[in-house]
Amino acid sequence: MDEKEAPPQPPPTAFPHHHFSPSTTCINCGGPTAYPTPPPPSSNPTYIPIRFPAVNLPTNPTNTKEAIMRTPVPQSQKVVPLQPPYSFQTPVKIISSQNDIVRLHSSPTFANFLGFVVSLSESIKSHKLSDPCHVSPAVCTIVDVIEKLIAFVDEIPPVPQSARYGNVAYRTWHDRMSSDAESFMLLLLSPDLRDAAVELVPYFTDSFGNSSRIDYGTGHETNFAAWLYCLARLQIVKEEDYQALVSRVFVKYLELMRKLQLTYSLEPAGSHGVWGLDDYHFLPFIFGSSQLIDHKYMKPKSIHNEDILENFASEYLYLSCIVFIKKVKKGLFAEHSPMLDDISGVPNWKKVNSGLLKMYKVEVLQKVPIMQHFLFGSIIKW
User: Fold this and answer.
1) 249 vs 245, 292, 320, 357, CA distance in Å?
2) What percent of the chain has pLDDT over 90?
3) Alpha-carbon distance 241 to 244, whole Å?
4) What CATH homologous superfamily does 93-376 map to?
5) How far apart are CA 305 and CA 217, in angstroms?
6) Tens digits of per-residue pLDDT, 113-144?
């Protein structure tokens, strides 16, 4: 062929088309395609032929990006009620290895618990915290109990000490909470369920941090979700209570935990530092992103707008978390919270919410150091 001669043109086709075929030849016109053949699976083990997730994690030591990408978005499930005859027992720790995690994640028990967390997230979708909702006597009782625990903090001031973390006065608070825990449970239990207190108390007392290490993290927060799940299985709280469980109960729990964190300088348990979402919490980001789905004006990038944070943090959990982080951490937001900064670049809250649910499953519920403290009894069975 003469060097100046133009290459042969593909024959005209009956309709306009684009070269989207992965092969080297267009199936419509026989012309060459613009895309090279994808590499075979063996040539590069890290090649994943799907788009990147909504939540783009920074490169970090654990490199969990692929695991999160491959994880399906968790779906809501109706809680399976616990049927009599009951055999309540003191729940125990069982998980000690990654094999145990694999067994847990393949069980219907785990799927139902995670489905409950997703249901809570869906219940608050597109709602402000102040929106009217069904508030049952059980929800009111739980809120009253947490308010008593907040009052305990005011009655037990921190002791003077030089250590940055872990004020020992927290142990006094924890002892007082633990000693009253059974009476708190009995406020919620009907006569035929009074024996359930033995099983509910350990989940409850493990929801507020560890008294020997004086720390708190996402494992303790997960125990609080597990305690609520136990109440749901016992039908003490029902599906119509879910919105209030987030907007009334969980909000009050978050108020207590922030007060404990600031008053007694709780150590972050198992924190990833800048590589984590937050030093202490995960669930308020899930519930908070659900609140903002389809919001007309607030987008994920709105977390950088100080006016929005100031005016709406009291109504939206996600924004209140950002405000709290900015209060307790100094310096540039992108430096002390790079993951949250990355998430702010995601186009919409639905993608943020689904990405966070996947991340919660992988980063919290699949981690042995966190789940080794999880409890199993007759309500949440191993």
Assistant:
1) 5, 19, 16, 20
2) 76
3) 5
4) Phosphotyrosyl phosphate activator, C-terminal lid domain (1.20.120.1150)
5) 28
6) 999 999 999 999 999 999 999 999 999 999 99
